[in-house]
Design goal:
It is a single chain. The protein is α+β, with helices and mostly antiparallel strands. The longest helix has 15 residues. It contains 4 helices and 4 strands, in the order E-E-E-E-H-H-H-H. It has a domain of 63 residues.
Amino acid sequence: MTMARTPKIIWFATRPPRGSEPGSCYIGAMEIKVKIPDEIAAQAKERGISIDAYVEEILSQRVGARPQAVARPRTPAEIRAWLDSLAQFSDRIPPLPANISREWIYQEHN
């Protein structure tokens, strides 16, 4: 048998779709209803803590048990190799003109 918890309302904001007014966002709410097994409720009671605190503890242990990808600092040689790979075909890029004009930008769109 499971024990239903009081629904929680979570507020969130999301980014608007492309083309929307700059600075706008969507705000919404989501109702979450959680069913807690009696066994977990009993374990929380045994420990003398609330069910919410016990569930948070279980989740933090589970998440903490996952191996975290820790980015190590790159060596100067690795950074140089990455920059060289970015510049690999840079000799094929034509130089920019001294004065960039609207006509030059749109020259191939006529």
